[in-house]
Write a structure and sequence with these properties.
The longest helix is centred in the middle third of the chain and has 32 residues. This protein starts with a helix and ends in a 16-residue tail after the last helix. It contains 5 helices and 2 strands. With 169 residues, it is an all-alpha fold. The radius of gyration is 27 Å and the shape is flat. It has a two-stranded antiparallel sheet with strand order 1-2.
Length: 169
């Protein structure tokens, strides 16, 4: 009887620990394409895995800083002008060069803004967050390289040519 009472007491004391629920799984495997609900796709949270909440917020802010739509529209407008020049009956090389220069300047300006935001964000990160970012960035680069190697192996650009049937005799 004493043993049963002791066993019951131990079971009651351990009940809260036994009843704890495991944390929910992460939003998706690293590198899996996910929809963010705002019409954009992203690679889960793999670039920020292992970072503190403050580090994740800092990097998210840097990646979504500025006017990406305006940058995109400026680049597309220059490309549309290039196509219009190419579509004309007579090719105007000066206008084509000007449209190409505008496209390059728009793309370079957008890239410079993004890089500036990233430098500012990296300066705010802790050493642990920067190192976590580096680990994740390297892993993502390796996944992309592996994916490209598999694609090339199936006959993508630079890969082996598909098998051709022998010529008729």
């Amino acid at each position: 009887m004493r043993f049963a009472a002791t066993l019951l007491l131990v079971a009651v004391a351990a009940a809260p620990a036994i009843a704890q629920v495991a944390p929910p799984p992460p939003p998706g495997p690293p590198g899996e394409m996910m929809h963010d609900g705002r019409g954009r796709m992203h690679f889960g949270n793999s670039m920020f895995a292992g970072m503190s909440d403050a580090g994740k917020a800092t990097m998210h802010g840097a990646l979504h800083d500025g006017e990406p739509l305006a940058d995109h529209e400026a680049t597309h407008a220059a490309r549309d002008r290039m196509l219009a020049v190419l579509d004309a009956d007579r090719l105007d090389p000066v206008a084509l060069r000007r449209a190409m220069d505008d496209e390059r300047e728009a793309a370079n300006a957008a890239k410079a803004r993004r890089q500036g935001a990233m430098v500012a964000a990296f300066q705010q990160l802790s050493l642990a967050d920067r190192r976590a970012f580096v680990v994740n960035a390297r892993a993502m680069r390796n996944r992309v390289e592996d994916r490209m190697a598999r694609w090339r192996g199936r006959g993508g650009p630079g890969g082996p040519a598909p098998m051709m049937p022998p010529p008729p005799q």
